Amino acid sequence: MEISLSKGDIKIKGKNSPALVSNAKLSVGEFVVPGPGEFEINGVDVVGVAVDSRTIYRVNVDNVLVVYLDNLDRKLTEQESNQIGPANVLLIPVETLSADAAAEVVAQLEPQIVVPIGNSENRAKFLKQMGTEQAVAQAKLVTSAEKLPETTTVVVLE
Is 99 helix (H, G, I), strand (E, B) or coil? Predict the structure, then answer.
């Protein structure tokens, strides 16, 4: 499973259909996920959870659970957190969440890998809050269910 950023889009590639997050919409292959609900598209399981006026997605790609929080601007309620379920990889918006709130959401969902999405200034504040100020930027994240780290790791994508 591979995650990369390109011109503001998030690309998730797995063995089955690729997923793309663009303009807060999730597509798997040619299918655009319409919003909240549970979907199985070309071997990719998707759960969409309504949170305020947005949809948060959990995508199962090659047995790795990737959660995309759209432009979440507050921490999750316990009910929302339970609906989203577990996360192996968390794509967290540091543009709309303060560093403190983003760190709280990480603690709520307990992912193995956290990928902050946003500008470098907000990302730096988040990294400091997480205690990982020296995170090295990389072009893409490549992982598998067998290679997930034991403790929460922050990965910065270029």
Answer: helix
